[in-house]
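Researcher: Going back to the complex we discussed earlier. I've cleaned up the inputs and rechecked each line, so this should be the final set. Can you rerun the prediction on the complete assembly and write out the structure?
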Amino acid sequence: MNNFSISLKAAKDVVVIMPRGYVNDLGAERLEHTCEQYFDKGLKKIVINFSDMQHINSIGASVLTDIVQKTAEHRGYLCFTNMKKVHLDVFEMLGITKHVRVFKEEKDALSFLKDIG
Amino acid sequence: MKGRWDLKRLVFNLSSLVELGQEVTSSKGINEKMKTTLHVVTGMFSVPRAALLVYNSTRSSLEVLTYKGIRGMDGTRVYIKAKHIKTFKKNEPCSINEIKNNSFYEDNHDAFKRLQTKTFIPLFAKDEFVGAISLGNRLSRKSYLQSERDALKVIANQMSIALHNSNLFKKLTNKVTENKRLYENMRRIYHDTIQAFAAAIDAKDVYTKNHSYRVARYAVAIARELGWGEKDVEGIYVAGLLHDIGKIILDRGVINKGEELTIMEITEIRKHPQISYDILSKIKFPWKDVVDFVRHHHERVDGKGYPDSLMEADLSDGVKILALADAFDAMTTDRPYRRKLHLLEALREVRKCLGTQFDGRISRVFFRVLQKEIKGEVREAQIIPHLDKDFDPTIITTLLEGITAELSA
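Model: Rerun complete. Updated structure for the full complex:
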């Protein structure tokens, strides 16, 4: 029913999450639960690579808002990468990008997170 | 630049409102529907923590239906009095600071703290208070612009209607369940009353204890085998229970007389189907033809029955079933004037009377269902449990197969 999936790449103290498809219904909550699980394990650095994300709506934005909030609660680092302009515009408009680090490429985010130790 | 952002914002908000409309009118359950709509609202305004509460008028409280971004909200309640509800502006968002001096806030300080409420939106469907939305801080920590408050009001209107409809549906469902329960109770009382009548009828005749009950059971077995629907089966069951109700006003001495009856007495006894009809025709039964079955249960297919001497073509299947069931039980039970017949003899007697007393098609169905009961091929036997156990199943089965083959030829 929903056209959403996620794939994960975990390495040392960073996890890269790649949402795929449409982040437009409650199925997107899996993204939030995945982040929560890593925070609960003590991991604090999360990269979300949006290169395979097709569409995001207010429900998807709500889920990302939750992730931003939880990252702050856990004093973690959240990076968004490989965003299409249309998605970046939505996140900027909603004020989400003020609370995350946005990078053009995934490797840039990983390099940034490596530097902060 | 600002104009471009305003336009993008407008498009995003409009598409969010469309999504909200789709959710509200979807066929999802109320919990999922409300959770999704709550996400739409919080996504539109970047609110990480929020909850939707429904009003429980019995408990005078708002109860959490769904929430996001907050832990452990289940069971959280906000107590609310009618005087507070009156002060709310319908579907208008209000800052928590605006109600901080209100006793409503003071009474629920802990609950609001747990909910992290910063904006409270009371939900009204027309004039009925149905719930509230609790919104926490926005990511930006900014307060809402007037245009955003207007959008929140539109959303609140939609959500309140969805909640109201859900409440109506719940009330309706409860009403239907209650009515079903009442109907079942009445039905049980109705059946109990009919059973009591049947017992009263049978008590009149010491030789025919439980006769009405057995006739009802036999009739049910034949009707089911004929493929009747359950409602019609219930109808013939009731007709079986009440078919002799007219005997209630007959002289007990005549009914129980152990020797040959006089012509006067026979004439008297033969009045009972008509009397039964006269009694039962005053009742509006929920099943069709009950009184017809009762009136004609002593008719014969050769037209020599009573009270109306109807011919085969004028007799309904129900009448033919009841006539056979009644006669078969009379044959297989002791009567004041003769001993009961053995099952083998009774079946031969039925066979002998085909085309005169009994209808051939209905009798074939009777033989078939009896065979099935002997072989254990029916879920619930209706005939065999009431017969004497002194018959040999193999002999009876052979006889029934022989009769069936003969009739089919």
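Model: Worth noting: The longest strand of chain A covers residues 14-23.
Researcher: Good, that matches what I expected from the previous run.
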